[in-house]
Structures are given as C-alpha cells and as structure tokens.
Amino acid sequence: MFEFFNKNYRHIRSRHNIPYSSGSAQGNTPVTSIVIPCTGADYIEEALLSAEFAARFTQDIEEIVIVSDQPEQAFGPLPAKTRVVTLDVPLREESYRYKQIYRSRLIKIQAPLQAKGEGILMIDSDLNLLNAPNINMHAGHLYSSFRQGKMIAKLAGAEESAIPAYYKPAIRPYFEDHVNGAYLAATRQTWKRICPLWLTLFQDTWELMNDSQPPTDQLPLSALLDMLDIRTINLGEWANWPVSKKIGGTSAVIPAEVIGAHGGFPLSEWQKYLQDPTRPLTFKGQDYTRKVRYLTDAEKKQS
Questions:
Q1: Around Cβ 136, how many Cβ atoms within 10 Å?
Q2: What is the rounded distance in angstroms from the CA atom of residue 82 to the CA atom of residue 251?
C-alpha cells in the first residue's frame, strides 16, 4: 500500500494500461507499416502466412516487412506489398542453451526500424491479422494488448550480482499487468527512441543472467518504458486474441471481432480460414506453443 505515497509510482501507474477508448490515447498517425520478425528457416512458412493475412485483410497498409536472418530468396514468392529485410545479428557462445531464441529477440528488437512508414505495427510471425488494425497513434505512446504476470518474476532466484541495477527502482516490471510483445504499435519517432535502449537492456540483462530460462524481450521492455516515460495504451482483447487458449482442442469458429489471432496450429487450419472465415477450425491446445517454441537448441535438434 505504501507505493501509493511514491510520486514516481503514481506517475507511472497513471500512464500505464490506458484504454484506447480514452480520448487522450488517440492521435492522428494511422498504421502504415506492418513488421513481421522471423528468425530461422523453420519459421519462414508462418511468416509468409502472416504476411498473406496482412495483405488480404489490411488493404490500406503501405507495406509489409518481414525482418529475418534468412535471405530474401529463401521466402520465394511474396504476398502483395511485402518485402524482406535480412539482418546480420551475432550468435551467443556455443555453450549458451538458447542461442536461437536469443538471436530471434535481437531480430525482433531491431525489426521496427526497418519499416519506412510513420505508423508501425510489429506482430509476431504466428499472429494473423483478420481485420485491419484501426489505430491512430500519438508519439510517445506504445499501443498493445495486455496480459497478466509480473515481469520481475523472471529474475526470481537469480544471483544478486546477476540482476541489473536498473530493475530495482523500476515500476512497471512489478505490475501484475504488462504489454504483450506479440502486438506492438507506435509511431516511427517512438520506435526510434525505444529500439536502441531495448537492445541495450536486453543484451545487458541476458549477458548477466544464466541460461536456465529462455531470454525474454518483455522484461527489459517493461523497464525501458519507465525510463523513457512512455504511455502504454490497451487496445483490448480482440487485438491479440490467443487462439489456442480460447478454442484450442475444440472445433470452433473464429469470432468476427478478432483483429489479431495469435497462435493457432497447425497452419493448415488457417488455409481453411482463408477459404471461408465462417468455417469451424480445430487448433491444438495451449500447451503446444510452449512445447515447440521455447526449446533449448539441443531440444530443438531432437524434435
């Protein structure tokens, strides 16, 4: 209860998880660029599918940018308005257990800066846009959906010497709610402020921490939002709708209100959606994603 007497806490709390319906959250910069990070040959198929959905259901978008460590020719024919940007990012040392995931985060954190538009929406490669994102943005705001869970819990049990000093005075990592990194929108100006610091904090955090867990980009993001005094805007549940959690393991129709459908495997079910959005689909349960996407490098080779 004593945090309410902390002026900085009250300031951050008032600028966190603001409903998009609030008039002050809405600016005049629409989404012009959709960015899809994609690391590793295993994820090319889903990135192309995500780009196909974006091309089909967001006709007013100026560009779709797949940002990858893979060469453009590996993607083959591209959906309309889509281009590929290949980044060269370093690998962790051979002994690090999550080299692939670490590398994917480096790609993701730098991906928004590869867009040319002024309004940039970055989505994970396993997120499909089923409706056009109607977001009008202010500079200095980050637009997302929110999920429950304290980001600071990622540091539980860590050696004191392995915890970067900037987490202790931070506010947002201790909140029960945090922005979901699978769907993030901001103006170009805002991304230019966020990405360099995000990269620095991510690398610093996971160079100090051991490799007992997959390196998350959302922990350093929660801290830098405090540092840069960014307002975080909640776009609501339909922006980033968790398919496996909501309908996994059953046969069901995707609700028409869904804007961003996150997850949903196998990908062949999404091909059925493209043919008929009213058709019942059968996706795997919510435990599937963690089993196949958060493996150590050794486990990935065995799968």
A1: 14
A2: 32
CA–CA distance, 237 with 214 (Å, rounded to integer): 26
Q: Which residue has the tokens 């997120």?
A: 127
Spatial strand order in the sheet of 119-123: 18-19, 231-234, 141-148, 177-187, 119-123, 33-38, 63-68, 82-86
Edge-to-edge order in the sheet of strand 127-129: 127-129, 260-262, 241-242
User: Which of 269, 263, 268, 289 shows the shortest CA–CA distance to 281?
Assistant: 269
Which tens digit of pLDDT belongs to each residue from 210-268? 999 999 999 999 999 999 999 999 999 999 999 999 999 999 999 999 999 999 999 99
Cα 35 from Cα 84, distance rounded (Å): 10
pLDDT digits (tens, 9 = 90+) for 33-69: 999 999 999 999 999 999 999 999 998 899 999 999 9
- Dihedral of alpha carbons 151, 152, 156, 161, sign: positive
